[in-house]
Write a structure and sequence with these properties.
Blueprint: E1 3-12, H1 19-30, E2 43-50, H2 54-69, E3 75-81
Antiparallel strand pairs: 1-2, 1-3
């Protein structure tokens, strides 16, 4: 069976407060990087999945995101397959 590698980027949805991003922006401003604006903090998840069909792999990973890896109420995600 073929192994599919995927990267999932999870980020806060537009309009959702991002306290971690605000903290980083404030800290960078204090360090003299006041030009750094609108910082959003997310996460990168790398997954290897045993699957022969890329479309099926994408569907399985989307299911994982919806059920555990992302909070669909406040986060969105993008899946990139290698």
């Amino acid at each position: 069976m073929k192994r599919v590698k995927a990267r999932v980027r999870v980020t806060p949805k537009e309009g959702v407060l991002d306290p971690e991003g605000r903290s980083v922006q404030r800290a960078l401003g204090d360090m003299g990087y006041s030009d750094a604006q609108e910082i959003r903090i997310g996460k990168l998840i790398e997954i290897e999945l045993d699957c022969d069909d890329p479309a099926k792999a994408r569907g399985r990973i989307a299911e994982m995101c919806d059920r555990l890896l992302a909070n669909p109420v406040i986060e969105s995600y993008e899946i990139d397959l290698d």
